[in-house]
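We store chain and fold; example below:
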Amino acid sequence: MAEKKTVIVTGFEPFREHAVNASWVAVQELEKLGLGQNVDLHVSEVPVEYQAVQNLLPSLWKQYHPQLVVHVGVSGMATTVTLEKCGHNHGYRRLDNCNFYPGSECCMEGGPECIHSVIDMDAICKRVNSSGLGVTVSVSKDAGRYLCEYTYYTSLYLGKGRSAFVHVPPLGKPYSAEELAQALRAVILEMLELIEHNTEKQLCQHGQ
């Protein structure tokens, strides 16, 4: 029997014009769908606050020891489900829900400027788009230098790249919460398969 995997998926609380945050609504729908019998899915709502992120993320990684952490955020500019390739350390000057931003304007003082996910987002995008899901997936290298990217960089740093970030459009523009949840499920299952394949490949290489 396959060993159970642990996956954490987060969405964000409401902020500014997003009185209903599509990311958290979609993640709650995903929780109803689940990721199958072999995956323990844990969901969490992340505050749109820099200091709260610094407290919450280490505790999530430490408590669950997940194979993968996927953060979901809303983008008013997005019209597709967008997979972010990387997180940047500097440039955080926009005020959060507590009217605060880090004095250093960075996530991790002394951390690398850019951390890429270990997941090949182009490959995931290609697979999901060819699956006939009916939701368009794209990739991006700029997660926006706000709480979304701040969270992503922090998670990439803590998880040594075993993290992903997915931007979703606002609800109804054009997708429903259910459609977004189906897309998230498809994306995450592909990510798990890719991680497992890469791990097996590494084990084979070490065994030679």
Summary: Residues 53 and 151 are 6 Å apart (CA to CA). The two ends are 26 Å apart (CA to CA).
